[in-house]
Amino acid sequence: MSKTETAIKATYFSIIGNTLLALIKGITGYFGNSYAMIADAIESTADIFSSFLVLFGIKYSNKPADENHPYGHGRAEPLITFIVVGFLITSATIIAYESIQNINTPHELPKPFTLIVLGAIILWKEFSFQTVMKKSKETKSSALETDAWHHRSDAITSVAAFIGISVALYFGKGYEAADDWAALLASVFILYNCYKIFRPALGEIMDEHLYHELEAEIIKIGGTIPNMKGIEKCFIRKAGMKYHVDLHIIVDGTKSVKEGHDIAHVLKDTLRAEINELGHVLIHVEPDFESIYR
To answer: Does CATH place domain 3-205 in 1.20.1510.10?
Structure first.
């Protein structure tokens, strides 16, 4: 199975799971007098739409290169991530606003059965986070990583709701608002997760050099190429699931242009054979001046 297919299947997993959970949370929250669960349902509903955006981003970013996009369409992934973060910020804001409104409004205690439902949801969402995060690392997809963090933020809001409802039920009358305080706290966690999702995507758009392990691997492979004296510069930028690499290699200054060209091609072919995630590999050949003037 290709990385694109793996990412798409993981996204469908998220869409189906979030749809079912949004319904379960909404129904449980309504009949169980729990605004924290209704807030949870709001976030899951937002997650459904964001997962569809992630699906679109993954499919579009893996379109082949064309005349107008010689480096492919990989930058669509972080752009979709920005939109998804906007969804999360909006849902967090709505949850916070409604929580503050409900804190000041007298209402009934939550029903005990909501804790059972929440316990099951927390376990499922953490499982979903681990599953989708594993797939995001396999595919190197920033959009899929965003989807994984949605599951984690959902688990956090459910934990907050569980604590709030437990406090309300344990202390009884006068503590009904504990449920709403939990929803308010959950909105803060969601905003924090927004930053964790947004920051790497911004780095990808800005061509920030964050891929030191890959750089070390490229330099190591370069050391195995015959007649190559080393790598002077190694610049890496990510677009979607691919890494584009610009290299300056050093060869014996007495070699012909064709010999330097051939060495560069051997390096490019070797890198692509050993590192599947590489996209464009551009190699500039630098002469070793010491060998010229020796």
So the answer is: yes
Contact criterion met (CB below 8 Å) for 76 and 240: yes
Q: Which CATH architecture has domain 212-292?
A: 2-Layer Sandwich (3.30)
Task: Extract the tokens encoding 244.
Answer: 């584009």
State the pairing for strand pair 278-288/242-252.
parallel
The structural domains of the chain, with segments of one domain joined by +, span 3-205, 212-292
What pTM, to 2 d.p., does this model score?
0.68
| Region for 113 from its dihedrals, namely left if φ exceeds 0, alpha if ψ lies in -120 to 50, beta otherwise | alpha
CA distances from 173 to 46, 50, 167 (A): 33, 38, 11
> What are 239's strand-pairing partners?
242
d(CA 44, CA 21): 7
Give the helix, strand, coil percentages of the chain, each rounded to 5. Answer: 70, 10, 20
Angle formed at CA 194 by CA 5 and CA 52, multiple of 5 degrees:
35
Distances (CA, A) of 96 to 35, 146, 240: 11, 22, 33
Cα distance between residue 293 and residue 70, in whole Å = 40
Tally of CB atoms within 10 A around 285:
18
Q: Name residue, tokens 């959970």.
A: 21
The predicted-structure confidence for 129-182, as pLDDT tens digits, reads as follows: 999 888 888 877 777 787 887 788 778 778 877 888 888 888 877 777 787 788
Smallest Cα–Cα separation from 197: which of 241, 133, 243? 133
